[in-house]
Each structure stands twice: as structure tokens, then as C-alpha cells.
Specification:
Layout lengths: L10 E4 L10 E5 L3 E6 L5 E5 H7 E6 L6
Antiparallel strand pairs: 1-2, 1-5, 2-3, 3-4
Protein name: DUF951 domain-containing protein
Pfam families: DUF951
InterPro entries: DUF951
Length: 67
């Protein structure tokens, strides 16, 4: 299975919504761990890349797409 392409500052949709019922997140840190920020309530979640890849549904908007 090929990993989905995401980069810093991209907006992503996860398989399950956050407790605030928003399913739009911004990637704020990329490395061995991925940090995402909820666009509804501003909560920040840090998770291992492997878990993030399993929970990622799709990339909504790529920051570099405007170039």
C-alpha cells in the first residue's frame, strides 16, 4: 500500500471526527511523529507517523498546490 502524500501545513481529513465534530485538521509538524491541529476547536494532537497513516482518510488541500 502506497502512503498518502502530505506535507507541512496541508489540510487533511481523518477517518473519525474530533470530539467537537470537526473533521478538518492542519498538519503542523512532520517527522517521526505527526502533529495535527483541529480547525474547529484548535486542539493539537501528536501521534506516531504509523498511527497517523492508518487514521488518515484523505488530503483535502495541499499548501503548495497554489504554485
Amino acid at each position: 500500500m502506497q502512503a498518502k502524500s502530505y506535507e507541512l501545513n496541508d489540510f487533511v481529513e481523518m477517518k473519525k471526527p474530533h470530539a467537537c465534530q470537526t473533521n478538518r485538521w492542519q498538519v503542523t509538524r512532520v517527522g517521526m511523529d505527526i502533529r495535527i491541529k483541529c480547525q474547529g476547536c484548535g486542539a493539537s494532537v501528536l501521534m506516531p507517523r504509523r498511527d497517523f497513516d492508518k487514521r488518515l482518510k484523505k488530503v483535502l488541500k495541499q499548501e503548495n498546490a497554489a504554485e
